[in-house]
C-alpha cells in the first residue's frame, strides 16, 4: 500500500517523468518478463530501466539464477531509495540513480524498460534506443510497453508546442518499433490497458548508394 501511495505522490509531482498513475499489474509484469529465458550453466546480465517502485523488478528478481545480475536505472531518487532498501541483502542487484541517457551502459542479455516514451521528445527517444539496442548481446531482447489510447488523450490535453513535441517524439518511436519489434502483445488487465513490444537489434542498413551519377570519364572495359 505504501508503494502505491509513493507512486501516486510522485506522479502528481512529476507527471511527465513518472508517466503512469499506478504500478504495472501482474499481467503486464508477466508479459514484460516473457523473454527472461533461463540459461542453465551461464550467467545472465539483465537491465531494468525505470523500475519505479519495483513492480516488474520483483518478477525479474524471482527468475534470476545465483550467478545472474540485475542493474536497475531509475531517475527518481525516492523510488531508487525504496529499491535500495528492498534489495539491500541481494548482491545480484545494483541500483543506479541516474537518467538512462546519461548512464554508461554495460552489455545485457535482456532489457526490460518501463520508460514513458510517449512523453519524450524525438531526440531523447532516439538517444535512449540507440543506447539500449546497442548494449544488447547477440540474441538479446528489449521489452517495453505503452498505454493504449495514451497518444490521443495526451494530444487532446496538450498545448500547441507540446502537441508538436509529442507528435515528432511519437513518429520516432513508431519508426523504431516498426524496425525492431518481433512481437507485440495486448494486456487488457492493466490500468490503463497496455501494449508490450519485444524488440531485437537488426543489422544496420547496407551502405547507401550514390544518388547522383558520376562525372568520371568513360573507360573502355
Ligand atoms: C511508467 S513508470 C514505470 C514504473 C514501473 N516500471 C512499473 O511498471 O510499475 C516510469 C519510470 O521511469 C522513470 N524514468 C523516467 N524517465 C527516466 C529516465 N530518463 N531514466 C531513468 N528512469 C526514468 C520514472 O521515474 C518512473 O519510475
Describe this structure in words.
This protein has eight helices and seven strands. A hairpin with a 6-residue loop joins strand 6 and strand 7 (194-199). The N and C termini lie far apart (79 Å). Helix 7 (150-157) packs antiparallel against helix 8. It has 221 residues and is of the alpha/beta class. 38% of the residues lie in helices and 21% in strands. A seven-stranded mixed sheet has the order 3-2-1-4-5-7-6. It has helices at residues 2-13, 15-18, 26-32, 55-62, 77-86, 122-134, 150-157, 160-180; strands spanning 45-49, 69-74, 93-97, 108-113, 136-147, 181-187, 194-199. The protein has a single domain, classed as Rossmann fold (3-Layer(aba) Sandwich), CATH 3.40.50. The structure holds S-adenosylmethionine (SAM). S-adenosylmethionine binds next to helix 2, helix 4 and strand 2.
Describe the secondary structure blueprint for this structure.
Blueprint: H1 2-13, H2 15-18, H3 26-32, E1 45-49, H4 55-62, E2 69-74, H5 77-86, E3 93-97, E4 108-113, H6 122-134, E5 136-147, H7 150-157, H8 160-180, E6 181-187, E7 194-199
Parallel strand pairs: 1-2, 1-4, 2-3, 4-5
Antiparallel strand pairs: 5-7, 6-7
This protein binds S-adenosylmethionine (SAM).
Major beta sheet, specifics? 7 strands, mixed
Radius of gyration in whole Å, from Cα? 20 Å
Bound molecules: S-adenosylmethionine
CATH superfamily (homologous) name = Vaccinia Virus protein VP39
The outline comes out as: globular
CATH topology: Rossmann fold
Number of strands: 7
Per DSSP, the total helix count is 8
| SSE class | alpha/beta
| CATH hierarchy class name | Alpha Beta
Low-confidence stretches: none
N- and C-termini, Cα separation: 79 Å
Total count of domains: 1
User: H/E series, N to C?
Assistant: HHHEHEHEEHEHHEE
Strand order of the largest sheet: 3-2-1-4-5-7-6
Measured as a percent range, the helix fraction is 25-40%
* β-sheet strand percentage: 15-25%
Give the averaged pLDDT, no decimals. 88
Any idea what the CATH architecture is?
3-Layer(aba) Sandwich
Amino acid at each position: 500500500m505504501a508503494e502505491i501511495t509513493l507512486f501516486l505522490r510522485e506522479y502528481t509531482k512529476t507527471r511527465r517523468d513518472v508517466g503512469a498513475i499506478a504500478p504495472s499489474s501482474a499481467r503486464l509484469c508477466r508479459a514484460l518478463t516473457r523473454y527472461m529465458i533461463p540459461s542453465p550453466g551461464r550467467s545472465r546480465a539483465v537491465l531494468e530501466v525505470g523500475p519505479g517502485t519495483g513492480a516488474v523488478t520483483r518478477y525479474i528478481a524471482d527468475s534470476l539464477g545465483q550467478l545472474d545480475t540485475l542493474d536497475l536505472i531509475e531517475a527518481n531518487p525516492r523510488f531508487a531509495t525504496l529499491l535500495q532498501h528492498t534489495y539491500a541483502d541481494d548482491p545480484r542487484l545494483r541500483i543506479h540513480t541516474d537518467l538512462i541517457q546519461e548512464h554508461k551502459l554495460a552489455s545485457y542479455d535482456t532489457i526490460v524498460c518501463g520508460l514513458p516514451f510517449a512523453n519524450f521528445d524525438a531526440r531523447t527517444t532516439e538517444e535512449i534506443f540507440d543506447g539500449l539496442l546497442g548494449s544488447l548481446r547477440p540474441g538479446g531482447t528489449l521489452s517495453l510497453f505503452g498505454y493504449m489510447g495514451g497518444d490521443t488523450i495526451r494530444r487532446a490535453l496538450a498545448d500547441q508546442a507540446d502537441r508538436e513535441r509529442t507528435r515528432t517524439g511519437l513518429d520516432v518511436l513508431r519508426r523504431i518499433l516498426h524496425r525492431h519489434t518481433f512481437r507485440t502483445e495486448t494486456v487488457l488487465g492493466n490500468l490503463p490497458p497496455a501494449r508490450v513490444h519485444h524488440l531485437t537489434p537488426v543489422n544496420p542498413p547496407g551502405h547507401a548508394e550514390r544518388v547522383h551519377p558520376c562525372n568520371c570519364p568513360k573507360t573502355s572495359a
